Amino acid sequence: MKEALALTALALAAAVAVPMAASAADFGTAAEAKALVEKAAVTLKAGEADALAKFNDAAGGFRDRDLYVFCFEAGSGMWTAHPNKALMGTDVRALKEKDGSPLGDKLFAAPKDGVVTSVDYKFPRPGGTEPVAKETFLVKVGGQACGVGYYK
Fold it and tell me: What 8-state DSSP symbol labels residue 107?
């Protein structure tokens, strides 16, 4: 009887763990986000117009699950690349966290020339409403500031 209970408990634990592991694979990691922003920096150095076109194209090689490259003009804060086309031409500094904190100001101030920096904040996952801990890695290349964020 004890063996049957132990096997049942083990099977139940496995049944719960497998979907959790599978869902974790649906999200990018810190290392993957940082690698993607570094790849974006190299691509920007090779040519800004071509890089921005790739970042804005879903098939351009700069989107992976919930990871994507976004960019804004380092001087003006105007969005130049983002999957949400409604943001294009607006100012990154207008972004707020759900509690009203100035997220956009943090993103605007963080990028440094050729050095990857990061900003921690809370933001809902796509399709969600509750804020989740997120970290975004940012870098400045020429006149562009670009980032990639992941949910912790």
Answer: H
